[in-house]
Structures are given as structure tokens and as C-alpha cells.
Design brief:
The protein is an alpha+beta fold. Helices cover about 15% and strands about 45% of the residues.
């Protein structure tokens, strides 16, 4: 099976061209095997590029643990580059069918190849029941969960080299804002983003009972109203270098909580994304790079 590894801001996926390759019979198992960074190729997951009767292409995305996700912002930019560069669709605006519907992508082309992609990510979903979360939403604000207090038991995990020390279980109130960009996100603001926060609290929030389909977790520090830094614990993959839908959710949460502007640069561990939550149509627009790393053959 021919595969291509691609990355957007360090969020890396293995792509299989199902226009030319047979659909894998067990994509979940394939994702677990090929994503393994010691015994496989190594990635945050698997993305299948499929034909669509609704759009130029269809994206199916599987996390590193084999679970299928609705959307991936960095992944869809790379898919657009693949579709254009490989000649499946040679036009500057593409449509891609995803688990959250058909999205439109504008391509920045230089030297005959795609360098950067602007994605219309659609409207954010704020209704608590649709995110989904069982946290009570604010009925005066469309049932949105905005800076809601969430008591969580946090097992702080400190890492340093091979030394792993686990402190006592503590109970701490945490304020969170919940947004769906077709997949669920839980955003919390901190003064400093630490390993104890991301690696300790991230997996607990991902699997917290108030998120019936689990959740992605974003830890955010506001630098200026137009500039924020975030780290992300992704549902099904653990900490990754970037999360496009997470950056979109952070842009929305910043406006809802009054912490940041509608146009904001989001600094992720693997690079920067430009976000714009438009007042004109209520859509979130994300702009960022798409890079091909290498291609090869995976034994079936």
C-alpha cells in the first residue's frame, strides 16, 4: 500500500490515496499500527483520501488509537495539497466532504504546488448538548458553556528524563469553555502552560464523564488580544504539536470570554495559524501551511 506522510504545523498524518488504492479493510487497525512511532511509520493518525459524490474529495480521519474523528483542521489542509499536487483536482478552490459536512478550501499556489491553505471551517457549535457536554449551558447565550466551573480530580504528573513522579491527588476547580468545530473541544486559560497541566490534566479532561464522546483539551495563554499561545491534548492521540480545529475553538472561546479578538494568531508547538471568526457570516476561517514529508510503501 502506497502512503504519504504530511504535516501541518507538526500535526502529522499518514495519507492513503483511495482514488488509486483499495480502501483498507480495517482502517482503525491500520491507523494504530502505522501511527506507532516505534514500530510503524509514526504519526498522529491516518487520513483516507476518498472519492465523494458531494465534493471534490472525502476525508476520513482516524486517530492514533484507531478511533474515527469527525474533522481535522491541519489534516484537511494537507489533504487539499495532496489532491491538487497529485492532479486529482487542479483548481484553486476545493470542496472536501468531512464528518462535519462539506468544507471549502482556498489554495495558495506557488511554483505549481500548494504552499498554504485557507479553510472555511464553518460556524462553531456552542449548544452544550451538541458539543456534546453535560455541563449546563447559559440559556441567555444559546445554551453555550462559557467559563463554567468544572471541579476535577487532578493527578499531577511531573516528567524529567526517565524520572516520573506522581504527586498526590488534588481537587481543583477549573473554568472551561466548550466549543465544537464538528468535534468537541474544552478550552481552559492558564497563566503558564506546563507539562503538569497538559500531561496531567489533559487526559483526565479528555475522558471526563461530562464529555460523552470524550473531548480535545486546549490550554491557552493570552499574550495580547490578537495573539495567544496554546498546547493541546488531542482526543485519541495525546499531546500533539498542533490542532487546527482546536485553534479554531480557541479563537471562538477567546471572543466569547472577552479575552481575545476575532482575528488572532495562535502559536502552537509546531507553528502558527491565523484565525478569523468572521462577523459577516459567523464562520471561522483558518490559514496555515501544508507540507509533504515523504512517501513509501506499507506492507499489507
Amino acid at each position: 500500500m502506497r502512503f504519504t506522510k504530511m504535516q501541518g504545523c507538526g500535526n502529522d498524518y499518514i495519507y492513503v490515496d483511495c482514488f488509486r488504492e483499495p480502501m483498507p479493510h480495517d482502517p482503525a487497525g491500520l491507523s494504530r499500527a502505522i501511527s506507532d512511532r516505534h514500530f510503524g511509520v509514526g504519526s498522529d493518525g491516518l487520513i483516507l483520501i476518498c472519492p465523494s459524490d458531494k465534493a471534490d474529495a472525502r476525508m476520513r480521519m482516524f486517530n492514533a488509537d484507531g478511533s474515527e474523528a469527525e474533522m481535522c483542521g491541519n489534516g484537511i489542509r494537507c489533504l487539499a495539497k495532496f489532491v491538487y499536487d497529485r492532479g486529482h483536482v487542479r483548481k484553486p478552490t476545493l470542496t472536501v466532504e468531512t464528518g462535519r459536512g462539506v468544507l471549502t478550501l482556498d489554495l495558495e499556489i506557488a511554483g505549481g504546488v500548494v504552499r498554504q491553505v485557507r479553510v472555511d471551517m464553518g460556524e462553531p457549535i456552542l449548544d452544550a448538548a451538541l458539543v456534546p457536554t453535560t455541563l449546563a449551558g447559559d440559556s441567555t447565550r444559546g445554551n453555550a458553556v462559557i467559563d463554567a466551573e468544572l471541579p476535577v480530580g487532578t493527578e499531577w504528573i511531573l516528567t524529567g528524563g526517565n524520572d516520573r513522579r506522581t504527586a498526590a491527588l488534588v481537587r481543583q476547580g477549573r473554568r472551561v469553555t466548550c466549543v465544537s468545530m464538528g468535534n468537541p473541544h474544552c478550552i481552559t486559560y492558564v497563566q503558564e502552560i506546563t507539562d503538569a497541566e497538559v500531561l496531567g490534566l489533559g487526559p483526565q479532561l479528555e475522558n471526563h464523564q461530562i464529555f460523552p464522546r470524550r473531548t480535545n483539551v486546549e490550554f491557552v495563554r493570552v499574550n495580547r488580544p490578537d495573539d495567544v499561545t496554546m498546547r493541546v491534548w488531542e482526543r485519541g492521540s495525546g499531546e500533539t504539536l498542533a490542532c487546527g480545529t482546536g485553534a479554531c475553538a480557541v479563537a471562538v472561546a477567546g471572543v466569547l470570554t472577552g479575552r481575545s479578538a476575532r482575528q488572532v494568531t495562535v502559536h502552537l508547538t509546531g507553528g502558527d495559524l491565523q484565525l478569523d471568526w468572521s462577523e459577516r457570516d459567523n464562520h471561522v476561517y483558518m490559514t496555515g501551511p501544508a507540507v509533504e514529508v515523504f512517501f513509501g510503501d506499507w506492507p499489507i
